[in-house]
Specification:
Largest sheet: 3 strands, antiparallel
Strand order of the largest sheet: 1-2-3
Bound molecules: zinc ion
Low-confidence stretches: none
Order of helices and strands: EEE
Distance between the termini: 30 Å
Strand content: 25-35%
Radius of gyration: 14 Å
Length: 66
């Protein structure tokens, strides 16, 4: 999983120091008190701090948009 980063380089400053962060119980959660949590993964530039990418950890848990 670690070698599948969708971002390799910061598009803002050109830095390649990509950091990962997680946020739990984010505002976009659709259900409270989920045991697995609705974690959001962030990829952050370690140089300028820009958020380069974000995704949810368990996308299949969200309802399909119609
Ligand atoms: Zn940057």
């Amino acid at each position: 999983m670690m070698n599948q980063l969708p971002v390799k380089q910061c598009q803002h400053c050109g830095g390649e120091d990509i950091r990962v962060g997680w946020q739990q119980d984010a505002l976009v959660t659709f259900k409270r008190n989920g045991l697995l949590g609705n974690r959001i993964k962030f990829l952050i530039c370690g140089n300028c701090g820009a958020i380069l990418y974000q995704c949810v950890a368990e996308p299949h848990r969200f309802p399909r948009a119609r």
